[in-house]
Amino acid sequence: MSEPAPESLSNQVSGLYDQALNTVTELATLFSGRILAAIAILFVGWIVARLIRNTTRRLTLKAKHIDDALSSFVTSVVYSVCWVFILLAVLGTLGVQTTAFITVMGAAGLAVGLALQGSLSNLASGLLIIIQRPFKAGDFVDFNGCSGVIRDIDLLTTTLTTPDNRILIVPNSQVTGNTIENFTREPKRRVDFTFGVAYASDIDHVKRVVLDEFSKDERIHPDPAPMIRLKEMADSSLDFTARVWTDTANYWSLYFDMMEGIKKRFDAEGIEIPFPQRDVHMRTG
User: Which domains does the chain have, with CATH numbers?
Assistant: First the structure.
């Protein structure tokens, strides 16, 4: 066998070198174009995402029924979704198979959702509270045995201040899962009183005395007019029910002042408030 000539071997090496150089050049040209396109998509997407975020923020703040916390949450979600689409477009431009990437993201999202099931429930309840607005900061409410003034409403919890100045932090799922009683949402409330007097008392006299006391207090609304009726003939007393309307802010001050004032007026008018009584019949053998 004859050995290849040195010139032939040199030509083959040179040809392989040229071919490799051309391949590298083509790949560099191809990938440089993709990289430049990806950078362009990233830059334009960043601008568009910021524009969408600012527009969403401005529109949600203008809506009267949308709270500031909900506006921030919606804006963050929209901005995050925009970036997901931008990153998928960049990966697709670079030649990465996005189908597998989306599948992995879906599986990861499902796993995170199962792990954070309780938190997601509180989050959904927080959104319902912010959208439906059954109460607002400063309202006095009662739900699930918790009473107090609403201090703060977050997406996960609601914070209350109790009348004795304790702080209660309640998960939002417990708030929406129970009956919500809002005491201060309406501008006025009805105040109910119950008075017991002796059986010997004159019914009309008792009514006149109570209504006269009501007429002296400017906190009581004339419409609807104050009302007093005989509610029950109990074992030891005649029980009267009286009802008046006042501003919500004056509810407790009016209640306590009126209970004290009527007791003093009963004493001055000679109207007796009886103690429990029982008749005992003695039989001898």
Answer: 14-115 (1.10.287.1260), 135-182 (2.30.30.60), 188-269 (3.30.70.100)
